Amino acid sequence: MRASVSTRSPRYYEQQGLLRPQRRASGYRESDVATVRRVRMLLAAGLNTDLIREVLPCMADEAAILAPTCEEMAQDLKHERERLSRSIEQLKAAHSMLSSIIHAGEPVTVRAGCDG
């Protein structure tokens, strides 16, 4: 495949209803490289396959940048972006908490090493 993906990825995308490749006379699938690239971009953006299945028909590929063509889809993507923002904030808080714990434990570890 020219989209630089494993051979299993297009099969998975097809099982998830994200890809509907044409069949050759021999029965082999003829892949849609542009669709595979779109799916990969949307997955990388954090969307799940259910949402991708809904928004994929409304995506236009303009100079390798995905652009919404349906207003409803743009709203769905805004909601997904808000969900991701909340997740990012939670991850930042967890990261900060771990940093605090690690930092609080450092002097104890250093002192314990000096006492020995």
Brief characterization of the structure:
Helix content is 62%, strand content 10%. With 116 residues, it is mainly alpha-helical. The model has no long low-confidence stretch (mean pLDDT 77).
For the sheet with most strands, the description reads:
2 strands, antiparallel
Low-pLDDT stretches are none
Instruction: Please state the structural category.
Output: mainly alpha
Radius of gyration: 22 Å
Number of strands: 4
Number of helices: 4
The residue fraction in helices comes out at 55-70%
Quote the average pLDDT: 77
User: Distance between termini?
Assistant: 61 Å
Q: Order of strands side by side in the largest beta sheet?
A: 1-2
How does this structure look, described?
There is one protein chain. It is built from four helices and four strands. The protein is mostly helical. The radius of gyration is 22 Å and the shape is elongated.
Kindly list the characteristics that best describe this protein.
116 residues, mainly alpha, elongated
Topology overview:
Blueprint: H1 8-15, E1 22-23, E2 29-30, H2 33-44, H3 49-55, E3 59-62, E4 65-68, H4 71-115
